[in-house]
Design brief:
Elements (H helix, E strand, L loop, with lengths): L2 H28 L1 E6 L6 H16 L3 E6 L4 H9 L5 E5 H9 L11 E17 L14 E3 L6 H12 L5 E2 L4 H9 L5 E5 L7 H9 L2 E3 L4 H10 L4 E5 L10 E13 L4 H13 L3 H5 L8 H8 L6 H9 L12
Parallel strand pairs: 1-2, 1-3, 5-6, 5-7
Antiparallel strand pairs: 3-10, 4-7, 4-8, 4-10, 9-10
Length: 328
């Protein structure tokens, strides 16, 4: 073997190694990195999005997602508008206002599109049975809490009751303060977000010692809310025998994920597909997701346009996506 031949083979080998390295680098360059806006790390919803990130990284090729602790819905929407986040946690009532340019977004509509809803938050109004109050209208003048101080429940319930012409003697306070007030009969009841379609732990605790009555919407009240507050969903809460509560209808909103309209359709499609078709990862992190058809829940409770990638996937599953959920 000549020196020239040896040199040629070494050169070819070096060229092959170089080509492989360049190919590997190109593959890495093609990997898309996405940031997911969440909420406080102490929240169970933060844990849900950690699971979502892990699921997407495993199931969707060329995507690498990471979660970021944020101030929840409002913070996430603003960061997405500034392109600091790619997608993140939202509630359906707030994203409706963002798209419509109403409420906190008055005159400044955005183009944030819903991807999926994974939980529904019915606003459940309960009162002590011994208060003798059986309808929302009968709350007029009664000492009643419309939601924990500073919460979305408080803000929404105040608006709903005002719309319906109902004026309770509102008692404000934290979770502990209001639960104690109901137990001691210093307030006859409160509005609290449900745990999925069930009453939450605080309400269940009260019901153990104090019989409760759930105050649902009648047909006229339901129609009024649907017309004047399209950002809200009308939710049918099933009976809860353990708390001796019958089924009833109330207002509520969904909790889900949204992305800027600029996210390409294929990426949104792949993400939504991975989320909807998963039956284990999300449920292990957030129990309310267990047994839930995320696609059907999204189409049923969405209050603003869906991302085109989500629309395409839901239609492929045979779901009828209403015109109101299709972006212009």
């Amino acid at each position: 073997m000549t020196v020239a031949t040896t040199f040629t083979r070494k050169a070819l080998l070096a060229l092959c190694v170089s080509s492989l390295a360049l190919g590997s680098g190109s593959a890495l360059a093609q990997q898309k990195r996405l940031l997911i806006g969440t909420t406080s790390s102490s929240s169970s919803h933060y844990g849900y999005f950690v699971a979502v990130s892990q699921l997407i990284n495993k199931e969707v090729a060329n995507l690498d997602t990471s979660v970021v602790e944020t101030g929840a819905t409002m913070d996430n929407l603003r960061r997405m508008e500034r392109r600091q986040m790619d997608f993140g946690l939202v509630t359906t009532n707030v994203i409706h206002h963002a798209n419509a340019g109403t409420g906190d977004f008055e005159g400044k509509p955005s183009k944030i599109r819903l991807l999926w809803i994974y939980s529904i938050a019915p606003q459940i109004a309960v009162v002590r049975k011994d208060a003798g109050v059986n309808t929302l209208t009968e709350l007029n003048g009664k000492r009643f809490n419309t939601g924990l101080r500073g919460s979305a429940t408080e803000k929404t319930s105040d608006a709903v009751l005002e719309l319906l012409g109902i004026s309770p003697d509102v008692v404000r306070g934290s979770t502990g303060e209001i639960v104690d007030a109901v137990k001691d009969n210093r307030a006859i009841g409160y509005v609290k977000s449900g745990a999925g379609l069930r009453i939450d732990a605080s309400t269940r605790e009260i019901s153990t010692f104090t019989p409760l009555t759930a105050l649902g919407l009648d047909a006229a009240q339901t129609a009024k809310i649907q017309e004047a507050m399209p950002e809200l969903s009308i939710v049918e809460v099933p009976a809860d025998p353990s708390a001796n509560l019958p089924d009833f209808v109330t207002w509520g909103f969904g909790v889900g994920a949204a992305a800027a309209a600029e996210m390409d359709e294929q990426t949104a499609y792949d993400i939504v597909k991975a989320i909807v078709e998963d039956t284990e990862v999300q449920a292990a992190a957030f129990g309310d997701v267990a047994g839930v058809d995320i696609a059907e829940m999204t189409v049923r409770y969405a209050a603003s346009p869906l991302h085109p990638g989500a629309v395409r996937y839901f239609r492929e599953r045979g779901l009828d996506v209403p015109a109101r959920l299709i972006a212009d």
